[in-house]
Amino acid sequence: MRIDDAISPEVITKLQSAMEKWSTSLDNYRTAKLWLLYMHLVEILRAFILSARTGNWKMYLQSLHEMLPYLAASGHHNYVKSLTLYLTYMEKLEDIHPHVYVG
User: By CB neighbour count within 10 A (0-12 exposed, 13-18 middle, 19+ buried), where does 63 fall?
Assistant: First the structure.
């Protein structure tokens, strides 16, 4: 098997569906659900750090958007309010201020 075959979209889709099946099979186990949630949170933080280091604007906004429910659930209402407003303006930055938007 070549490396191109291993990273083809079909193989990745199969792996993602197998992972989703596996994670739904663990819904009855509290510790497993906790670890899956933890891995998801770490994934969001890794995307946030990667986007900040590489300057990937779309990934940066997406990772901030994915943080919103967890900030709300943890009671950080001021962060949620401010971040929602920030995301609203930053998602329109390309249209409102094209001279500032780099892409």
Answer: buried
- pLDDT value of position 103: 61
Q: Residues 70, 54: contact at Cβ < 8 Å?
A: no
Cα separation, 44 vs 36, whole angstroms: 13
Cβ atoms of 67 and 48 closer than 8 Å: yes
Domain ranges of the chain: 3-96
Helices (H), 1-103: 3-6, 9-25, 30-54, 57-73, 77-91, 93-96
Low-confidence stretches of the chain (pLDDT beneath 70): 1, 3-4, 6, 101, 103
Q: Please say whether the dihedral angle defined by the alpha carbons of residues 73, 93, 63 and 53, taken in this order, is positive or negative.
A: negative
27, 33 Cβ separation under 8 angstroms: yes
How does DSSP classify residue 34?
H
> Burial, 61: exposed, middle or buried (Cβ in 10 Å; 0-12, 13-18, 19+)?
middle
